[in-house]
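TICKET: design request
STATUS: open
ATTACHED STRUCTURE:
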């Protein structure tokens, strides 16, 4: 037959108001009526309390719950406070840590009454008093008072009660005085039994203590409810655990973020609730931390952790966290908008025109580099296609869908370059934009930042750049906030940075940070086989004879591919025929001797070109066969003002 708990209720309100919440006290006993006249005694207690404290605005309810001793570990009792006796109390305390439990004391007067009644009923026979230590403490001292032989047996485990009775029989005991279950076995083997009754005084004392604990518990529950309400309406998820890693707080936001909707989480080991992974590891670790970004399933969490201390002693740990997946998606959309506004790599390896094995090998090396996420230093003379290779590497990498941001370090003064790289806060300096401005490092987040002419940056900027590469975070000018960035650096130079390091013109630590992967671009004179195919690519609409191509191969092309491209563009403009022959090439090739006579120095050549084109820098650079980058560097070198 299935066992079910039996409930007997009695409740009495101190006031007439129906709004007064009742404090629920459960009397847990092994059989109905185990505590003699329990409900009548409770009614007397309530009436007495009402007379003694009429101003008290409290309601009480007592429920008698019948649970066999061997079933206690299977039943969850819901109450403000529990009262019980003897071994039942001990078992309840082992399985109910969250509810206050009051032990009904078996006082000396109760033992004396039971022993006197035992002597009256059975005569002067040896009595085995069996019970929990808190129930029969000092009973052996009553032997001389009552003139009754007494043998005490401490019972801490109900499973050994039968053996304890057998031992009592072996010791010559004739009567067993104990609790319900022990007495049942004693009766089955022919022993006479006495139940240790609970006196009115003991029961009242338990009720007084239960009332006190119930009120304290209710106050604590109300306080906890207020805190829980605050936590449940907090934006952040909050989980707290005790030292045994059992959940003490698991707010609504935490359940929503983690998609865990079990209502009975308090007291459950957190290892049985959360998925295995870094989030759980952080929660159960000993270390505190300010902020970590961790994955949990398909979402990303921003997590903070702190220890919980009471009077200087640690009692548990707490984590607060937010789902930043949406923020990352929003950030991704912003990055895409930035990407569509121009921070995009246009070229890929398929756009590089070549025929020589040398360039083919260089491209293969660059493709291998693109699959890594290390910084790259591209070294090559002016016009060898450093930016084209940088863009191709980006478009062949895992960062291809994110921004490619390029900046020429030689084209801007130090102060302007610094603000462009790192951005600035609102009010950082006179003329600063309202709301501040993002720097190129922020714009290139999760993408690639191409730093052309890296050898031109000042020592001050070298130090700042080194810190960014080490810490992966930047601080805007005039701000005190740290911004984490995930950027791959591709730097380019036509200088020998190692010589600059030896001459203390470039920081060695920065050089090694930038040159994790080196890519050397050969000058055009080292792969002349590519000149004809390049010329054909540059002059798609016009035919060029084989003799003309061979003539082009004989030139030095100090400006490399860019100079060749500019020359081919000039031929297309100046030659009216649909075919370019060797005579056209000879006619328009720059004459070195004439050039040397006309332009005595590089500075004068630049000034002459600027004057000729009314200080239009782009046209002047094109005539000189220089890239805009090189032209800016020359202007800076010779202090030529173009305002």
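STATUS: resolved
RESOLUTION: sequence designed for all positions
ATTACHED SEQUENCE:
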């Amino acid at each position: 037959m299935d066992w079910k708990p039996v409930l007997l209720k009695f409740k009495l309100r101190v006031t007439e108001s129906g709004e007064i919440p009742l404090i629920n006290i459960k009397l847990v006993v092994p059989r109905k009526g185990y505590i003699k006249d329990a409900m009548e005694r409770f009614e007397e207690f309530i009436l007495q309390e009402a007379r003694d404290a009429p101003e008290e605005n409290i309601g009480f309810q007592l429920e008698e719950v019948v649970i066999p001793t061997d079933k206690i570990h299977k039943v969850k009792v819901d109450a403000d406070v529990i009262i019980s006796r003897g071994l039942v109390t001990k078992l309840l305390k082992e399985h109910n840590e969250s509810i206050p439990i009051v032990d009904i004391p078996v006082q000396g007067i109760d033992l004396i009454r039971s022993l006197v009644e035992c002597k009256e009923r059975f005569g002067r026979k040896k009595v085995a008093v069996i019970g929990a230590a808190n129930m029969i403490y000092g009973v052996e001292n009553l032997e001389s008072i009552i003139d009754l032989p007494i043998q005490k047996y401490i019972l801490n485990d109900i499973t050994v009660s039968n053996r304890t009775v057998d031992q009592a029989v072996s010791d010559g005991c004739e009567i067993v005085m104990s609790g319900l279950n022990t007495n049942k076995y004693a009766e089955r083997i022919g022993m006479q039994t006495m139940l240790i009754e609970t006196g009115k005084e003991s029961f009242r004392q338990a009720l007084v203590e239960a009332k006190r604990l119930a009120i304290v518990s209710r106050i604590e529950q109300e306080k906890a409810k207020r805190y829980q309400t605050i936590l449940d309406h907090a934006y952040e998820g909050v989980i707290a655990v005790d030292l045994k890693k059992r959940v003490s707080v698991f707010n609504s936001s935490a359940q929503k973020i983690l998609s865990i909707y079990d209502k009975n989480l308090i007291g459950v080991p957190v290892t049985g609730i959360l998925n295995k992974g870094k989030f759980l590891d952080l929660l159960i670790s000993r270390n505190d931390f300010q902020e970590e970004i961790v994955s949990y399933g398909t979402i990303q969490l921003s997590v903070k952790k702190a220890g919980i201390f009471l009077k200087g002693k640690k009692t548990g740990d707490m984590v607060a966290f937010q789902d930043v997946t949406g923020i990352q998606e929003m950030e991704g959309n912003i990055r895409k908008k930035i990407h569509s506004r121009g921070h995009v790599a246009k070229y890929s390896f398929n756009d590089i025109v070549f025929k020589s094995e040398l360039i083919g090998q260089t491209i293969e090396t660059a493709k291998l580099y693109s699959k890594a996420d290390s910084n790259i230093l591209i070294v090559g003379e002016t016009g060898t296609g450093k930016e084209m290779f940088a863009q191709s590497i980006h478009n062949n990498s895992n960062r291809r869908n994110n921004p490619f941001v390029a900046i020429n370090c030689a084209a801007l003064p130090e102060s302007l370059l610094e603000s462009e790289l790192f951005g600035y806060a609102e009010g950082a300096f006179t003329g600063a934009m309202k709301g501040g401005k993002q720097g190129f490092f922020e714009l290139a987040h999760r993408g690639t930042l191409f730093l052309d002419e890296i050898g031109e940056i000042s020592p001050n900027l070298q130090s700042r750049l080194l810190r960014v590469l080490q810490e992966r975070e930047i601080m805007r000018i005039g701000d005190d906030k740290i911004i984490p960035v995930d950027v791959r650096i591709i730097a380019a130079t036509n200088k020998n940075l190692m010589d600059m390091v030896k001459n203390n013109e470039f920081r060695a630590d920065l050089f090694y940070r930038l040159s994790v992967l080196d890519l050397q671009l050969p000058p055009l004179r080292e792969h002349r086989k590519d000149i004809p195919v390049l010329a054909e690519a540059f002059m798609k609409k016009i035919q060029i004879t084989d003799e003309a191509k061979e003539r082009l191969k004989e030139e030095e092309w100090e400006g490399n591919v860019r100079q060749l491209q500019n020359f081919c563009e000039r031929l297309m403009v100046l030659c009216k025929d649909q075919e370019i022959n060797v005579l056209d090439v000879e006619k328009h090739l720059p004459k070195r001797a004439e050039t040397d006579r006309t332009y005595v120095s590089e500075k004068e050549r630049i000034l002459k070109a600027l004057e000729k084109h009314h200080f239009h820098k782009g046209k002047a650079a094109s005539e000189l066969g220089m890239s805009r980058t090189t032209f800016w560097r020359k202007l800076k070198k010779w202090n030529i003002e173009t305002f």
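CLOSING REMARK: Residues 238 and 320 are 5 Å apart (CA to CA). The radius of gyration is 45 Å.
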